[in-house]
């Protein structure tokens, strides 16, 4: 077993990090085309139909079970921070369905001939600390000896069947509100190139380890119609999933999209992930960019977010309540960023001005 002092950087052991290592949406779509259509199940409230954040199974008239899993390779070198980020990201999918987490299982794949038990233990401790903050146990899991370090959770939660919030129920006229600022992928790219200042790293950790606890309170609002979280496919990708599922078009105002401080400058300097380009190659044909936008805006729209913010589609009269819920949960950067309009006559599902 390796001594901790002799170990390589965690990020050097992974070909991709965080949600940036997700399979590109176009490739994923092609893979799933070979999957046989599942038989209908009356109690399966949410399945794979609209690429939603989690599966939801009705247990009875008062409870539905939310089940999801998420895991990835290191996006940072500090093992404790890696564990925290991965756990926060996994639990987010429960919040994105409007639910409350109840339990988690750990998924652990580690190169045990490269990493020390101390380092691996710190990764697990980081995940445990987030689950403690969420008020849930890690009640089990599974470990393997793998080539690259991998960590994540199976997360389970509960929600009232009438409060399940899918990504496909946006309505024409809805306003869009985003809970966290964009730019995590840009910061991770800068970190890998040793170009991320200490303040940038602190911001990255702050946003990626902040639990999306606003989810259940948002789901309780009558004016909230659709909910998802922005992760590996970027804001554009997850807004497109919302538009496709609801047979609408989403219009974003780029000037109102919140960004982590300094991210635009880093992206302009070339600090972007390979996943950003793969994302755009998969769905760029469905996006129409306004004449005043720059290449950096495209990079920011497709930037993979690890443990990103909740994206809410709500009635216009509910915007103030939605923002109040976000602010009450400590999401000071939450902002209204666009609207849902009738589907375009062309192939565009997303328009950005």
Write the layout of secondary structure elements.
Elements: H1 25-32, E1 44-46, E2 55-58, E3 64-72, H2 79-96, E4 100-110, H3 117-134, E5 138-145, E6 150-159, E7 175-178, H4 184-192, H5 198-208, H6 215-219, E8 224-229, H7 234-246, E9 248-252, H8 263-268, H9 274-283, E10 287-289, H10 295-301, E11 310-314, H11 319-328, E12 335-342, E13 350-352
Parallel strand pairs: 4-5, 9-13, 10-13
Antiparallel strand pairs: 1-2, 2-3, 3-6, 4-6, 7-11, 7-12, 8-11, 9-12
Helix pairs in contact: 2-3, 4-5, 7-9
Q: Can you characterise this structure?
A:
This protein has 353 residues and is an alpha+beta fold. The protein is 33% helix and 22% strand. It is built from eleven helices and 13 strands. A seven-stranded mixed sheet has the order 8-11-7-12-9-13-10, with helices on both faces. Strands 1-2-3-6-4-5 form a six-stranded mixed sheet, covered by helices on one side. The longest helix has 18 residues, at 79-96.
